[in-house]
Design goal:
The protein has a two-stranded antiparallel sheet. It has three helices and two strands. A hairpin with a 5-residue loop joins strand 1 and strand 2. By secondary structure, it is mainly alpha-helical. Helix 1 packs across helix 2 and helix 2 runs antiparallel to helix 3. The C terminus is likely disordered. The longest helix is centred in the middle third of the chain and has 25 residues. It is 52% helix and 10% strand. It has one domain.
Length: 79
């Protein structure tokens, strides 16, 4: 349920990740369910790390790079 709610929110790194997981065929219900399951696992890992580390959750947005891998971006420019 949390992954489905997060996927509906705007400006959300989890929504972007779900779109990348399911981009091969957006109309394939099985692929979309697999993407939601993967997103749920990702959310669980993030929550576990925040609780275990005793830190506040700070979203990191992943930006695609030319190599096809994801690059982490904190939303600020380093000068």
């Amino acid at each position: 349920m949390a992954a489905k709610v997060a996927a509906r929110q705007r400006d959300n790194s989890f929504r972007d990740k779900l779109n990348r997981y399911a981009k091969r065929n957006r109309h394939d219900a099985d692929l979309r369910q697999k993407a939601i399951t993967a997103l749920t696992a990702k959310m669980a890992r993030v929550v576990h790390a925040a609780i275990k580390g005793g830190t506040e959750y700070r979203p990191l947005f992943e930006l695609p790079v030319s190599s096809g891998r994801s690059s982490l971006c904190t939303g600020r420019e380093d000068t």
